[in-house]
Amino acid sequence: MAKKTTYWWNKWTAGAIVILLLVLTPIFTILIKLFDSPGEHWGHIVTNLLPSYFSNSLILLLGVGLGTFILGVSMAWFVSVYEFPGRNYFEWLLILPLAFPSYMMAYSYVGILEYTGPVQAFFRNNLDVYFTGPIVDIMNMPGAIFILSISLFPYVYVICRASFMKQSSELQEAALILGSNRLRVFTKIALPMARPAVAGGIALVGMEVLNDYGTVKYFGVDTFTSGIFRAWFSFGDINTAIHLSAILTLIVLFLIWLENFQRGSRNWTSQRSSARPTLRIVPKHRSTQWLYTGLCAVVLMISFIMPLSQLFYWVSMTWQNVIDSEFGILIFRSFSLAIGSSVAIAMLSIFLLYAVRLSPLRWTRHIARTASMGYAIPGAVIAVGVMIPMMELDRFISWLSADSIGMILSGSLFILVIAYIVRFMAVGYNAIDAGFQKTGASVNEVARSLGASPIRTLWKIDLPLIRNSIAAAILLAFVDILKELPLTLILRPFNFNTLATKAFDMATNEMIAESANASLVVVLTGIIPIILLNSVIRGKYD
Amino acid sequence: MTIIELNNISKKYRAADKYAVDGVSFSLEKGEILALVGESGSGKTTLLRLIAGLEHPDGGEIRLNNEVIVSGRKSLPTNKRKTGMVFQDYALFPHLTIYENVAFGLKGLKKKETEQRVYETLELTGLKEDVKKYPHQLSGGQQQRVALARALAPRPALLLMDEPFSNLDTILRDQVREEVRQIIKTMGITAILVTHDTKDAFSTADKIAVMLNGKLLQIDTPDALYNDPSSAYVAELFGKSNNLEATVEAGGFNTPFGFVSGPADCPFATDSENCKVKLFFRAEETDFCNAEEPHLCGMVEQCTYLGDHMQLKVRCNRCNTCEKGSETENFLENQSIMLKSAVQTWKPGDTVRFRLKNFKVKETEE
Question: For all residues of chain B together, what is the average pLDDT?
Fold first, then answer.
């Protein structure tokens, strides 16, 4: 007689709990440490720096929120409602700025606007206008808002476009028949219906803004994240860094709550499964069509082509001095670290989601979702949260071996991989979850009813069916890890560089032109998944 | 021999929800085909998933082949139960050929034996030519048969089918139902199928169980369910029927439409004075007759053309020729009944004379 087991417990459940603990420990560590006494510099920071951290972070959030809202929503509306020359190219070209890490965008723009840059050269050579210093000083708060807005607006654009496309064309047609003009349809129907999506996109932008270190550091704008760095590196005061991290975490959790709260139970867009896609309007006059083309082209120029050209220009000037075998090793290390971490992320996501798939308990799904929380938490906070338990573990190992070996874990690449997993789990999780959802539960259930064990079912049925999603998960996590800066800066072993930290180090050491070499590799790599995934998405509809 | 036995099985999906399955018990003998019938949300699919081990009940016990497979928190994992399942969407493995699909559940057999078993099963389901094809190359009806073959190949003790015919169009459906019954009967397998279509149930099952709001209302042979439903819901589910108000009198029943002769003692109340009952009869279980024979009568209020027959809504309006009972006129005003007529020349306002061929005396539901 076959053995009965407790219905909800199996090896998969146990493994999933371990993975969850791994991913959630850093966040809990930070929140728990909030109750410890703060460090010696805490008083100084609270009286002298905290108010400006608060106000700067808030102004940056509001400014970038508004900027990405205007850019993202307007571009999404144009490409999903109007027909104009080049529209189907702009549809995906406008996502490209995502390949550009904002701090690299910041370096480029400083170059574009400086004395030797193309803008001033144009004025000098053609118009005989001379400036002293940069044409506009962007190394300040408005500059940071500008840079972050043009590099982050695709988050709003992508989500918003998807929402506009999903809206039933019948609703808009009904409004038109009732005598509304296009503007009224937009403000009264399309935009309110897209509101949950827009807010979701802006929430993502907000998390990226709080995560940013490279841009604000370069522009001299002090935010919470730069405060954590100051406490950690300048004061060497871990407890103060933890306290700042904890406050930042609370702010982020508040943002998440706000986003969930505004969404409520609204789910207007998917009322009908087979909504007919909106028929795009062809503007009557040719000139109006070209106006839309021009608008999209200007946004693309500013947010991608100009900064990319600047990188190419700098590379052409400096590559002889920078590209050597050491640069080759840098690329190799950077890529292997990112590949290793992203494969680990994909594997853990598969394990976690498969445990959920097997579980007869519905609520395990919601518990497992918390594994993707790291994406909302700023990289600097995660770095601190991973570092603390690792140092404890190191102390424990030293005590066991009765030998002061020191930083076995906390000084190694291992800690960096763990931190990447914590921070970017969501990227892999969402891609693989989508794959499982698309495949449906019944193939898995039928395989098990045919007597296949869970592991055999995974190998023979589920994995082959979601292999595209696995590839997407690895690719997306890979690119995100390659771009990552603040977390890597804090946790990298001594004298270890990734392309991102190399670019950062060079730019802060007045070698901005040389830094472009590393930046270019990162940006060009980042373009690959956008093109690939876009062709996958298009392939489905064509 | 009892193959499957459910004992007081209950399941809630969330604590705040109503029971999806509420205290269901039944058992099935070897070789029987049971149809679980009910509207969507009645809990029939949940019941099937509980038997397959894809859900775990909050309470109750399940035995398969006289072995307890579910009890308390303990459960035999799905892959160790000897149940086969056919899903509504068939759930064929899209990346495997038909042969590989059918062979998937065969373990511990030699290659030769596996091959033999696969071909044997495919032969039975008439798919021998398509072994190398992939699921997407087959028609809906063929996919359905592959799903069946795949579930049958490991010779399960119990076959479970979730809405197996709902993705087929009407013409194909009639044909496939008959085939499926033949195949299952040939192999002598015990099966449970879930459906919301009573035609599926009648044409394939030996027994039918009707579910409503998670409860098992009645489980019986198709014939018994049709002619002697235990509740108005079950009666209505299997077609138009009537519950005619009547009082028991000497030699029969007095109804608003006239007098019906029959057994004259009151079957329910001890007080035989003023004994009220209901006469249950199906819309087609009447004969139309002429004024000479004893008959009931009424007036056609509405007639609906339905192709092979006409459906009449008849209001009580006693004519002078019908047999009358005592003069107690304490019936509800304006009762109406539904009749089926093969003659299609009725008009509203016509007088209908009819006789009940077959009826059951039921207690009034008060």
Answer: 86
